[in-house]
Amino acid sequence: MASNTVTMGHLPSGMGICTTIPDILYVPELIFGGLVWILVACTYVLPHNPQAWVMCVSIFCFLMTFVWLVVFACGSHHNSSGWAAADFIYHGVAAMLYLSASVLLAMVTLAFKSDPATYVYKLDISAVVFSYVATLLYVVHTILSAIRWKSF
């Protein structure tokens, strides 16, 4: 039990972020967030369509996750409990944002599926799936970050 506390109570730096949990989730978060961003950007957006919120969330989370990854990779966090708390808070907020965006994207996809002339249905189905996968990754990262923060 003590060895688990030591490994979870440490914020990695450098290439250590590629081998520790929850930090190994940065790469899949970037991949699936980027896919959501690309797929929503490829679809036809109507003026009353809430996909602008989905784009805002996917771009914000992609950029912030990349910045967060760079901060940890460069070792700028100085291994303090404040950074562990900030990691937990950021991923919690990102999970809530992605959940709201995923629900809106699913709602829009279902609402416009009967209009094939102006709507690219298969792209948005893919975006919905990847959005929910990104949401799941952020939720798991939030839970694991909370465990690490509490072990400091």
UniProtKB/TrEMBL annotation:
Pinpoint the MARVEL domain residues: 17-150
What this protein is called in its record is: MARVEL domain-containing protein
Against PROSITE patterns, the record matches this protein to: MARVEL
UniProt-listed GO biological process terms: myelination
Where is the protein found, in the record's own terms?
Answer: Membrane
Q: What is the membrane topology listed in the Swiss-Prot or TrEMBL record?
A: Multi-pass membrane protein
Q: What are the annotated GO cellular component locations?
A: membrane
Keyword presence, Transmembrane: yes
Record keywords? Membrane, Transmembrane, Transmembrane helix
Q: Where are the transmembrane segments?
A: 24-46, 52-76, 88-113, 125-147
Any single GO molecular-function term of the entry would be: structural constituent of myelin sheath
Q: Which domain of life is it from?
A: Eukaryota
Keyword hit for Transmembrane? yes
